Every structure is written in C-alpha cells, then in structure tokens.
C-alpha cells in the first residue's frame, strides 16, 4: 500500500452500496426494480464524485475485439467451472439452478435494464470508481483484490454462496482488464458479452 489516508468518498459509496443491495435482496418479487434503482443511484454517486482519467487510446476494432473476446473468455471459464461444481460437495451446482430461477430476466424491460443500466452501471461504479480510487492508494494487484472483495460483499445478502463466488471471479477478471486497458468501453462490452451468453443465449445449467 502506498497511502494510508481514508478515502471518505469511497467508504461512503461502499456503505451506500451495502444498504441498497441489502434492501434489494429482501423481496425478490421487486428485485429488478430495486436493483435497477440502486445501480442508477450508485452510478450517479460515482459520476458526481469521481474524476475523469486518461484512458489508453485504441481503435474501434481493438475496443470491440478486446471487449467481445474477454467476455467470451470469462464465459468459457464459468462454463468449465460449472462442470466442476457437480463433482464437489456442498450443493453449489444446485445453487446455480436456483440463481437462474431467482435472478434471470423474464420480461422485455428486464433485458433492457440489464443491457442499459446494470451492465454499464456495475462497470462504472465498481471498476471506474471504486477500483480506480483504490489504485490511487495501492498497487494494482492489491486494488484489484480489495475491489473484488468489496464487490463480492454486497452479494452476501442474496443467500446463495454461488452468487458471491461468481461475483468474486468476475470482479477479479474485469479488475485485471480495467487495470490493463483503462477503457470503460472495453469493460462494458466484455461484461455485456458475458451476461448475454450466460443469461440469454447459452445458459450453463
């Protein structure tokens, strides 16, 4: 770690995220409404308090290729991981099915919220705000790990261990990608590719 000063804006954002996600997971019948609203609030917080950074300049083709291919790679990792779950004790393979049943989109507006609010919102908040602020105070490897733990922590309220595990793996992966490329466009394309494959086109259960 390079600095020990407490970042009150970052601390405040994590407290707010926990409060909002705790409320969100209390009633799954309105999950999509609450999660969309929570993410819009967190994005507003991040945009209002965050500072723009210089990003690596890439061509549109490079942005597209990095985004799509990284999202595909993470999907393959999850698919292979799911094949292993059935061999492990603890019933995590059954939790995968429960996660799909509880949180998969099933109306047009759910899909619109996923594409236009949740995917970009998670990358704006967790990577370009939370992780970016951590990277100003710590070495990238520590910032990535801490940001992943913080991101994972808000999923502890959903009562499914597999959701927390998935959040941690995804957070580390996208954290590495952000530290390397510093491109919000790549982050969103990668996350969107992954989510569409995992939830819409090629579910893993």
TrEMBL record:
InterPro entries: Rce1/LyrA-like_dom. GO terms for molecular function: endopeptidase activity. Keywords: Hydrolase, Membrane, Protease, Transmembrane, Transmembrane helix. One of its GO terms (biological process) is proteolysis. Residues 107-196 form the CAAX prenyl protease 2/Lysostaphin resistance protein A-like domain. The chain crosses the membrane at residues 31-51, 63-88, 108-126, 138-156, 186-204. It comes from the Bacteria. This is CAAX protease family protein. It comes from Weizmannia acidilactici.
């Amino acid at each position: 770690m390079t600095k020990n000063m407490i970042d009150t804006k970052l601390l405040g954002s994590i407290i707010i995220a926990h409060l909002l996600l705790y409320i969100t997971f209390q009633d799954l019948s309105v999950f999509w409404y609450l999660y969309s609203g929570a993410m819009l609030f967190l994005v507003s917080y991040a945009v209002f308090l965050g500072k723009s950074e210089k990003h690596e300049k890439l061509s549109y083709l490079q942005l597209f290729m990095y985004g799509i291919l990284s999202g595909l790679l993470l999907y393959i990792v999850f698919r292979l991981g799911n094949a292993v779950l059935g061999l492990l004790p603890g019933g995590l393979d059954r939790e995968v099915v429960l996660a799909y049943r509880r949180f998969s989109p099933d109306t047009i507006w759910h899909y619109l919220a996923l594409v236009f609010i949740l995917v970009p919102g998670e990358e704006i908040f967790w990577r370009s705000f939370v992780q970016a602020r951590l990277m100003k105070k710590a070495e990238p490897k520590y910032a990535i790990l801490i940001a992943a733990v913080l991101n994972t922590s808000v999923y502890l309220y959903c009562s499914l261990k597999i959701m927390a595990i998935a959040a941690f793996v995804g957070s580390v992966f996208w954290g590495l990608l952000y530290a390397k490329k510093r491109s919000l466009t790549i982050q969103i394309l990668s996350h969107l590719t992954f989510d569409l494959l995992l939830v819409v086109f090629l579910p893993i259960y």
